[in-house]
Amino acid sequence: MLCEECGKREAVYHTTTNINGAIGETHLCAECQSLRGADVFKGIGGLFNMFTGAAEIAEKTVKKRQICPECGTAWDDFVKSGGYVGCEHCYKEFAAALRPVILKTQGELRHTGKAPHPSPEDKRAAEYRRLTDELNKALEAERYEDCARIKRELDRIKNR
């Protein structure tokens, strides 16, 4: 199969994309792939090959020596690791470069996928907040018996 870009050389990069149900295929030779700039991020499992525009923007935006002050991850480490940041602070440190990449790959910046199951501590904290709100409402309505019951439940959660 010939390269879609130049039409001269054999295609060696074959990419299939599925963006919101729209399936697209790209077949490029090594030279055309390199000219698109996708090889900058080839260590990231081909994900950036599908979105070379975002990769180019990210590469221009980030400073080569930029390092996360919390974990010490550098931008080059991010690229070499296959797209893994070192900690949650990396998202702030590399925000300017990651924002266009995340938008292109996920469609929005807000996470809409699955979340981890809450830990027992998270469940207790959520229950405590709910009961505190309920206690405030009972106090406003002057339902003192309910207040006493809710206060006992709050104490029970606090003493766990």
Short key terms for the protein model shown above:
single chain, 160 residues, mainly alpha, two-stranded antiparallel sheet, 7 helices, 47% helix, 9% strand
The assigned structural class equals mainly alpha
Task: Work out the number of β strands.
Answer: 2
Arrangement of strands in the largest sheet: 1-2
Taken as a percent bin, the fraction of beta residues is 5-15%
Approximately how much helix is present in the residues? 40-55%
Uncertain parts: 38-52
Instruction: State the helix count.
Output: 7
Order of helices and strands: EEHHHHHHH
The radius of gyration is: 25 Å
What sort of overall outline do the alpha carbons produce when their principal axes are compared?
elongated
Please give a structural write-up:
- With 160 residues, the chain is mainly alpha-helical.
- It is 47% helix and 9% strand.
- It is built from seven helices and two strands.
- The chain has a two-stranded antiparallel ribbon.
- Helix 2 runs antiparallel to helix 5 and helix 6 packs antiparallel against helix 7.
- The longest helix is centred in the last third of the chain and has 21 residues.
- The radius of gyration is 25 Å and the shape is elongated.
- It starts with 12 loop residues before the first strand and ends with a helix.
- About 9% of the residues have low confidence.
